[in-house]
Design brief:
Blueprint (H helix, E strand, L loop, with lengths): L20 H18 L1 H13 L4 E7 L5 H12 L3 E8 L2 H10 L5 E5 L13 E3 L9 H11 L1
Helix pairs in contact: 2-3
Length: 150
């Protein structure tokens, strides 16, 4: 049996530098399906609604956005509820950003290929979040990321 007392520091297969993009793309497609069917997007929307409050205009940034499905889910919610929202999706992998653009060509999103730490905003977003992303970092990197997000 695996001991889950402590967080694993072992890199996952997708973190390797030599992973073919076809494997990453399949993973992103599967994550979208899982998030759609098993409630991951609902959890994201629930958090978004709490942070939105009474506002009807907001800007949102996701770091480690992958294929953009979280931002797309938020966009769909905003459209249904008359909320004006601008989006920024940041991912360090160009192929992920290209895939997000391809998946959601009509989405009002600024897709940025960058390390989140070096991303430049014309105006700071109202909400910055990440989803299924933190496990890629060690404890020190997580602290840096959370401080950056703050």
């Amino acid at each position: 049996m695996i001991d889950l007392t402590y967080r694993s520091t072992k890199k996952e297969l997708l973190d390797a530098d030599d992973v073919p993009f076809a494997d990453i793309k399949k993973n992103m497609q599967e994550l979208n399906t899982i998030n759609t069917l098993l409630g991951g997007h609902k959890i994201t929307i629930r958090g978004f609604k709490k942070l939105l409050g009474n506002r009807n205009k907001i800007s949102v940034c996701e770091i480690g956005c992958g294929g953009g499905d979280n931002l797309h889910a938020i966009e769909a919610y905003c459209k249904r509820h008359g909320i004006i929202c601008s989006f920024t999706g940041i991912d360090i992998k160009k192929e992920c950003i290209d895939f997000a653009r391809q998946q959601y060509p009509k989405m009002n999103c600024n897709w940025v290929c960058s390390d989140y730490q070096t991303a430049v905003f014309k105006k700071e977003p109202d909400i910055i979040f990440s989803s299924l992303f933190c496990h890629h970092f060690n404890e020190q990197q997580l602290q840096v990321m959370l401080q950056w997000m703050k």
